[in-house]
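INFO batch 0412 | record 1 of 1 | parsing
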Amino acid sequence: MSEFVRLEPHVIDEIVAICGTAIEALKEARVIAKDLTDTRGFGEFESAQQLAAGYARKAAGTPESAQERVDQFIDAFTQLRDAFAAGGEAFLEAELDWVRRLQAIDPGSVV
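INFO prediction complete | emitting tokens
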């Protein structure tokens, strides 16, 4: 027997809204992450320059860097939001279709 979770329309709306809020917060974090590439102020010593270069690498330019991680989270939340939005609508349409079919079988029934 397959199990499923039924989400009420308002729950789907809440999930979509939560994802939207997370996306907006992550977009703000992206602006902050871009500032992390500014490595001025580490000093002129060779060790300071090496430290600045390492800091800049962690800020941007690799899949593990702050900017890329924030972008990855934005993409993930966007896909999640879109999936719930699309799935929720598809779910509701399918449910309404079943209600119509059941009512067509017994017009006097309340489904």
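INFO post-check: Residues 15 and 98 are 24 Å apart (CA to CA).
INFO record closed
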